Amino acid sequence: MRADAQRNAQKLRAAAIELFRERGLQVPLKEIARHAGVSHGTLYNLFGGREALINEVVADLAVDRLDGVAERALACSDAWDGFAYYVEGVCELQATDPAISDVVTGRYPDAERLMDVCGRIQVAATHLIARAQQAGALRPDYTGEDLLFIFGTNALLARAAAGTAPDAWRRAVALMLDGLRAQAARPLPAGPLTSQQAYTVMGRLTAAP
Question: DNA-binding region at which residues (predicted)?
């Protein structure tokens, strides 16, 4: 890559990170190009489109922060506390960072690195769920796909309430967690979704209007 192309790519990465964090991954590419001081065509020549640009910056946007929540949750000695910490921690990141909210819900499934991050989230969630269930604290029929829906609805609530009641998500998450304790469990009317079904539904639920 020529030196001028490298400089333009760096400008575009920096602009994408800034605008994605402010407004989420759906920011128009023309605005990213304008913010970087390059043409729309330059962005497409260097990255090819939105998914490729997301792939370039998703590690900077989300990986360390999400991994940090998972590590602290896994370090909790109490299995329920670890599970609850993870749910609350990811939901808080969603409420404060629109880019992470879109990453967690797998909004752009054609962005391979983004979906790799989603896979890491699921691995951590599966471990924390299993640990809490083995301890008898979490209802035994709860799955990682069920948790994905919690993150999806939290993303919608946090976005809608941001300017009016920015802490509304905290109440909703607390109510949900209380309902997931093993002693509150009742038979469910339907079985869990597969991972593919869950991400398909989440893609529709969180799709940009």
Answer: 28-47
> Total structural domains in the chain?
2
Range of the domain at 89: 61-205
| Residue 117 CB partners (closer than 8 Å, separation 6+) | 58, 59, 62, 63, 66, 103
Give every CB contact of residue 120 below 8 A, 6+ residues apart in sequence: 63, 66, 67, 70
Across the range 190-207, mean pLDDT stands at 76
pLDDT tens track for 157-168: 888 888 888 899
Give the tens place of pLDDT for each residue, 95-154: 999 999 888 887 677 788 888 888 888 899 999 999 999 999 999 999 998 998 899 899
Can you tell me the distance from the alpha carbon of 103 to that of 118, in angstroms, rounded to the nearest whole number? 7
